[in-house]
Amino acid sequence: TINRSIHTAHARCRGSLGPWLPMRFITAEAKASAGRLDGKMREKTLTMDTLNPQVKAVEYAVRGPIVLKAGEIERYLEEGGTKPFSEVIKANIGDAHAMGQQPITFLRQVVALCTFPELMDSPSFPEDAKWRARRILQGCGGHSLGSYSASPGVECIRKDIAAYIEQRDEGVPSDWENIYLTTGASDGIMTILRLLVSGKDSSRTGVMIPIPQYPLYSAAISEMDAVQVNYYLDEDNCWALDINELHRAYQAAKQHCQPRVICIINPGNPTGQVQSKKCIEEVLHFAYEENLFVMSDEVYQDNVYAPDCQFHSFKKVLYEMGPEYFSSVELVSFHSTSKGYTGECGFRGGYMEVINMDPEVKAQLVKLLSVRLCPPLAGQAAMDVIVNPPQPEEHTFKQFHQEKSSVLGALAEKAKLTEQILNSVPGIKCNPVQGSMYAFPRIFIPPKAVEEAKALGMQPDMLYCLRLLEETGICVVPGSGFGQKDRTYHFRMTILPSIEKLNVLLGKVRDFHISFLKEYSGLEWDEI
User: Fold this and answer.
1) Is residue 50 in a domain?
2) 123 and 240 share a domain?
3) Per residue in 37-78, pLDDT tens?
4) Same domain, 77 and 177
5) What ranges make up the beta strands (E) of 407-468?
6) CATH code for the domain of 73
7) What is the pTM of this model?
8) Coil vs helix vs strand at 240
């Protein structure tokens, strides 16, 4: 019976495809022929017409058209092409190691030991790293970093994070069961937004975000078909957050959506400001009064350079505002391995701490996290080292402290250098880079250049950044990709390149900007 069935199937194949061949030998031409109907090719199911419209609405400027063009130029140079420059300097993204920053030795030692436990026998690895690696591996299935962990993360790592938060916040309690490991902070931010977005038409969730903002937020809002509610940071006051602007944005948004969540990035990206404690108190009071869920993006908490600035966690400030606030305001805070002094972007490690979430909703959060199984365990291990670094009494502390201080000291120096050089250029104004890894200078673009950009169907600062790339090899991101007030123009650049390369970069920006002003304003050097 089985043989007869096979014979019948073979016969059918002969009728449609000629002499029978096993399926693995059917040629691409035969398959294509089989896909034709009355001489017409089968239409694709997924086209730009059938694509999810929310996906088409997503934009992510940090890896947008400018970066694609930079890649083309790099390939052209590699193939022997000539330009007025010998290399492309990518200052578009906060990728520390790609910019030449060296890894923190102790972190890599612990992750290496977790990845290849046979190294435990090597005298080249310090005992401080070995006992941390053993402890992490004991929390992994089969004592292997190749296993899945529980969806919220490895339990001992969650406990280490809670202990770190308590120490950072000078005794404010942290429950390890409120800690969830994530695949970078971005994963956590997307997950929480998925919980929050609901409703239709005027009841659709409104998400309040700072402008300028990190494009992850606008991209996530577009993908989820939520409503973006912009509140503008005060550029004239070093990008401070103005409580009156929050009220304006909230009241305006209530006319067409239901604002349910406010997002804050502190220290700021792309703006580099560090919010004061008073400002944070005002935001939390506003959220309390308007019953808003608070999302606090704190991935740059170690990146504070201005001597008169200090990082204040939203959780600590909330606690200090008293039980009425601390027991009721819903708050999620995010951290990451990608920034700070480690810059370990590729590990995709991160966590979020969830405060005052409804228990039934928290169960839904765990369900949602379980769908993606777990974050990468190597990233979890890296996160553990960041929250559980060498202590002063440990043998590895001296080298660790030297490396950490060197990275942060260099960043502080580069933040000051960037501000000073940009502010020396006519037509460029840069606020102090108090923290994070970026400068977001305002640039004057002459009306003639604005008109040319409009004729080309692009934003004026996109034209500016494209010209900068094509003439100097410097890749920065137009301010329009982050949001900005009408008729103002900016670009974002990272301060991560080495001092030597940063000096070259800033010198080229200076020369280009003066040339750009001359070209489009018709002014001579002594008039600029």
Assistant:
1) no
2) yes
3) 566 777 888 888 877 787 777 666 556 788 889 999 999 999
4) no
5) 428-429, 438-439, 442-443
6) 3.90.1150.10
7) 0.86
8) strand
